[in-house]
Design a protein that fits this description.
The complex is a heterodimer of chains A (about 120) and B (about 110). Chain A has no helices and 10 strands. Chain A has strands spanning about 5, 10, 20-25, 30-40, 45-50, 60, 70-75, 80-85, 90-100, 115-120. Chain A is globular and about 45 Å long. With about 120 residues, chain A is an all-beta fold. Chain A has a 6-stranded mixed sheet, with no helix packed on it. A 4-stranded antiparallel sheet of chain A has the order 1-3-8-7, with no helix packed on it. Helices cover about 0% and strands about 50% of the residues of chain A. Chain B has about 110 residues and is an all-beta fold. In chain B, the strands form 2 sheets. In chain B, strands 2, 4, 5, 8, 9 and 10 form a 6-stranded mixed sheet that branches. The termini of chain B are far apart. The chains are: A mainly beta (about 120), B mainly beta (about 110). The interface between A and B is medium-sized, with 20 and 25 residues.
Chain lengths: ~120, ~110
């Protein structure tokens, strides 16, 4: 089954760090970029970062530079997102989603999303 | 980085047609593909339009997309509105390895 499965909900104190995971299965991991997108309660979608699973090339949203790190483990087809210096504004649902790195019939950007991980930052 | 601006909300009656605009603040809308994503309350977003005007398998042909270089904007049109179309709609594009979402438009079908 083609899917992205994310780790479970997290509750963190302000100033702490959180590490989220996104495990891909059912498709060739190296053929798709993985993005992280978040959504604060009642707010819109915010793009955070992208990684190419094969090369490891990463790009981050300028707003998050210095606080965010994206890594991957090709052996387990898993991508990770580390977010440090948490503040209440980081409270959101965090989604991973894929984006074709090669042209292929039937695929398109953001064609598959993880189920989302709720991160709550509260003292 | 550029900004994608959408109307905050639109509403229309079942059976009618609506168009949601998405205006790019800088750079050309024609330079990078635009996608449109639908998000119903409590659900994960799904793509309804990709590469400006292409429709994924399973998305009704009531959904269509276009771009207009003269206004530097993209549009999502939904015809024959159904109550099930009620959702938030987000445009999305990218440039210089940065991806951007519009602020979202809440569609109410009343």
């Amino acid at each position: 089954q083609v899917q992205l499965v994310q780790s479970g909900a997290e509750v963190k104190r302000p100033g702490a760090s959180v590490k989220l995971s996104c495990k891909a299965s059912g498709y060739t991991f190296s053929n798709f970029y993985i993005h992280w997108v978040r959504q604060a309660p009642g707010q819109g979608l915010e793009w955070m970062a992208i990684i190419h699973p094969s090369s490891g090339t990463i790009n981050y949203a300028q707003k998050l530079q210095g606080r965010v790190a994206m890594t991957r483990d090709t052996s387990s087809s898993t991508v990770y997102l580390d977010l440090s210096g948490l503040v209440s504004e980081d409270t959101a649902i965090y989604y991973c989603t894929r984006d074709p790195a090669i042209v292929a019939t039937g695929t398109y950007p953001f064609d598959l999303w993880g189920q989302g991980t709720m991160v709550t930052v509260s003292s | 980085n550029f900004v994608l601006t959408q109307p905050h909300s639109v509403s229309e009656s079942p059976g009618k047609t609506i168009t949601i605009s998405c205006t790019r603040s800088s750079g050309s809308v024609a330079d990078n593909y635009v996608q449109w994503h639908q998000q119903r309350p409590g659900s994960v977003p799904i793509t309804v339009i990709y590469e400006d005007d292409r429709r994924p398998s399973g998305v009704p042909d009531r959904f269509s997309g276009s771009i207009d270089s003269s206004s530097n904007s993209a549009s999502l049109t939904i015809s024959g509105l159904k109550t099930e179309d009620e959702a938030d709609y987000y445009c999305q594009s990218h440039d210089n390895n940065k991806w951007v979402f519009g602020g979202g438009t809440k569609l109410t079908v009343l």
